[in-house]
Amino acid sequence: xxxxxxxxxxxxxxxxxxxxxxxxxxxxxxxxxxxxxxxxxxxxxxxxxxxxxxxxxxxxxxxxxxxxxxxxxxxxxxxxxxxxxxxxxxxxxxxxxxxxxxxxxxxxxxxxxxxxxxxxxxxxxxxxxxxxxxxxxxxxxxxxxxxxxx
Length: 150
Known about the structure:
- This protein is rod-shaped.
- The longest helix is centred in the C-terminal third of the chain and has 58 residues, at 91-148.
- It is built from three helices and no strands.
- The chain is mainly alpha-helical.
- Helix 2 runs antiparallel to helix 3.
- It has helices at residues 2-19, 24-80, 91-148.
């Protein structure tokens, strides 16, 4: 019975040590770390808004312009070596025409893919921003909690 009381008393004293306030230096370190995490979260949100999203959108737009230019070139090539060509019965002509048609189809598919990627980027922007805002808010809450513990 006495051993049980001793173990219980030891357990209670150990638990009381966990609830004891942190030394001022350690509390200051926790606050500094929390403030640093808050600043990182704010920087990530600003980085996404001002740099990452606009760059990704611009990159997709540029790729769309290039794919549309490629499509125009291939369509012009198809028109120039079209069925009215005097060489329409030669094997080389058919190979050139088929190659241009395949390249035009490839460019059309690429444009469709890029437009889908652009739409997905724009549709997911709000979700990505919200995630970054939640991370920032959690960091701000941690700073407030540590400040309130003083």
